[in-house]
């Protein structure tokens, strides 16, 4: 085990599966004390148990809908009440409803914004005062490369993820002298369990999203998690307000 995050308290949202679960495991391997959240309480508990069975400290879990301000606040309070502080917040909770814009309904549009943008806004709003008081913090948002390259059927999703990108840049300037950095990791298509399942249903439909990637493949979840951990580390102290694509070259510069 490396000691990159020893004694640091790290909150990871959307941690019950996919990229969030892999991010959590990377932090556990770095010695972090984890607080994990997701709407899926049973799967969240499974992730926590798996991490503990690998010889790491068992994460604290706090399930709930983080698009609700009071639930997000309870998550951050749980981290502080349990561990006395908060060092890192990874806003990974999300999940888009990907479809042509005119096929959306008011409910699917609202759900897409809630899952991706409001979860980020409320968790950050509650976390930043804790970080500001201690003079240290790292906030890493999971954005989307589709904001930059305008993928088919992603307009509503991009509306939400574009806000996730934008809030990080604004907060980076606002809190630049408070020891807190704000950055975004923006993946292209990633080989998550959800993508694997969707591929079985319609491989041809998903292939067009791979075709825009010059490397010709989806990203691996570990590749996303590695960038998150770098931006969350002390060594990234002079990196703030950045949207860093992990995308196989699907957008450049």
Features:
253 residues, alpha/beta, Rossmann fold, seven-stranded parallel sheet, 9 helices, 7 strands, 49% helix
Structure description:
This is SDR family oxidoreductase. It holds the Pfam family adh_short_C2. The chain is of the alpha/beta class and 253 residues long. The chain has a single domain (9-245), classed as NAD(P)-binding Rossmann-like Domain (Rossmann fold), CATH 3.40.50. 49% of the residues lie in helices and 13% in strands. The chain is built from 9 helices and 7 strands, in the order βαβαβαβαβααβαααβ. It has helices spanning 18-29, 41-53, 69-83, 106-134, 146-149, 155-174, 193-201, 203-211, 221-232; strands spanning 9-13, 33-37, 60-61, 88-91, 137-142, 180-187, 243-246. It has a 7-stranded parallel beta sheet, with helices on both faces. It is globular. The mean pLDDT is 95.
